Every structure is written in C-alpha cells, then in structure tokens.
Amino acid sequence: MNTSSLSFLHSPFPTSSSFLPLNPQTPSFSFVVEAHSTTRRQDRTARHIRIRKKRKFISFGAAGTVRCGTVFLLRIWTKAFFGKAFLVDYHFLFCQVEGTPERPRLSVFRSNKHLSVQVIDDTNMHTLASVSTMQKAVFEEFNYTAGPTVEVAKKIGEIIAKSCLDKGITKVAFDRGGYPYHGRVQALADAAREHGLEF
Question: Membrane-crossing residues (predicted)?
Fold first, then answer.
C-alpha cells in the first residue's frame, strides 16, 4: 500500500475552504436604530391629560367656583329577578372645586384612622396651610386610639381656621373630596366657619 494515499494532506474529501464563495459580498439589507423622543413616563402623563380633558366638559371659570365633569363609577349589588344578585353600575357626575390665590381650596381627606385638611392654591400649585392627625403634635394632643371622632374633627377645623387667618386667608372653597357632608366632614366645616373662615 502506498503511504502517500494515507496522508491527510492528500485527502480525497473536499476541504471547508472549497465551499466559500469566490467573491464574498456584504448583505444588501441594513439595520436602522431609532430612538424614541419621549419616555414611557411622559407618554403615560400625556395619556392621563387627554383622559382628563375628555371628562371635564363643563367649566365656569370664576374664582373658586365649581367645575363639573369627572365621572365616578359606583357599583352596587341588587337583588331582582327571582332573588338573584345582579351588578348594577351607576355613573355619577362629581363636581370638583378649583382654588385660586384669592379663594383657595379647603380639601378634606378622611380615613378610618386619620383626618387631614389642606388649603391649596391650584393656580400656583401651592399648599398654603395643612393640618393632619398624622402630625406628631396633633396626635399627642388628641390621644385617640379608635380613629378620629367628631370632637377631633372640630379641633382640626379650629386649627386650620386659625392657621388660615394668621396667613391672611379669610375665604375658601370647600372641597369635601366626594365624602358625604355628614359626621366628621360636617363637624370640621362647621368648626372652621365658627372660627372665621368663609365658605
């Protein structure tokens, strides 16, 4: 047997270099990288602004007056048709109050554990005064355990009225925040009126 036929240099099989094209060419397509001009946060903010503009369809424009149009959805269960429970949707038009430098907005927030109130200038987006039961001094003064009561709400109304009068604010637009005018909300408003604030 000839030893040259067993050499790897003279293999009968084609090499890998023989499969390569004679004139290699670059692919005709190209990738185009485009950067978004806005971020996801800006897109989300713009979408929320569009939604607000669609819902607010009535505006009176006077100082501290009512602007209507925000739609709130309330779902209640009713028993009808052979005692079966059906979900009924009710759409309500809730009125928002807009504060101005001459007549800022008195905004109330209540929960099971806390009660807070702010005096807000919506034109300049400034909070002029605020009182809350979450503040350490106020919480230690009242010393309640089962949530703010009507007496606590009266005291909060008195404190916010004095704070507003010290800063020269005598007229406010009351924003109850969708809560019924009852209980703590009513007690806070009455106490603020009694101590000099005009609604």
Answer: 57-77
